[in-house]
Amino acid sequence: MHFHLITLFPESFDSYLGASIIGRAIEDRKIRVSFYNPRDFSKDKWHRVDQRPYSGGPGMVLEAESILKAVQKAVGKKNPKKTLIIFFSPGGTQFNTGQAQLFSKKYSDIVFICGRYEGVDARVVQILKAKEVSVGPYVLTGGELPAMIVMDSVSRQIPGILGKSESLEENRVSSHKVYTRPEVLTWKGKKYKVPKVLLSGNHAEIDRWKEKH
Ligand code: SAH
């Protein structure tokens, strides 16, 4: 899987992509990440890509052409059937695990367009027929965090990234409540025990408990 990030702030991805499971997946070449900064495609002498919105209002809007050129560079001569273009927007369809599974199976390349400020000229979505995706019912300052969320969620669906396929929570009985040592935790004079059923070794009962929690 090759992820292509259209972003004004490529450096904001550094620490996340360098760490833990995702860092290792990049090192092992199971996923690839490339950056395209719209500023590099701007016609402006100062590489400006933000402009005032028509009809007025606060905030600046990212111009269409620099973003379209950056996407063109990312897409190149790739097979359009295996390439997905995502535009991040709080007004898009809510992202979920089902989509992560689908994207990981269906596509070899995913392009993420990360908006900033007041957003991106709406003609970008129109021209590229991009899929508008939201990561939740709140407004963020940019599409970079949403891109990290979707990349992370799609990556863990790719065979070999989490290790065994049973590592995927979706493929087994798992609980949102997990415990580790010690069996009895003492904190400020009070004792907190691990639920007995988890120590019982009775797998049918453990699965029943996990399904409940
Ligand atoms: N005025 C815009 C929001 C701009 S927020 C509007 O009302 O739609 C700046 C950028 O952050 C957006 O262009 C988008 O790329 C990203 N963004 C903010 N919140 C998001 C969310 N919940 N999901 C996905 N992208 C989001």
Would you kindly provide a written description of the structure presented here, covering whatever features stand out?
It is a single chain. This protein has 213 residues and is α/β, with parallel strands linked by helices. The chain has two domains: 2-165, Alpha/beta knot, CATH 3.40.1280.10; 173-212. The chain is built from seven helices and nine strands. The protein has helices at residues 14-18, 20-27, 64-75, 97-106, 123-128, 144-155, 203-212, and strands spanning 2-6, 32-36, 50-51, 61-62, 83-94, 109-113, 131-134, 184-187, 190-193. The strands form three sheets. A five-stranded parallel beta sheet has the order 2-1-6-5-7. Helix 4 (97-106) links the parallel strand 5 and strand 6 (109-113). The model has no long low-confidence stretch (mean pLDDT 96). It binds S-adenosyl-L-homocysteine (SAH). S-adenosyl-L-homocysteine binds at residues 88-91, 114-116, 118-120, 134-136, 138-140, 142-143, 146.
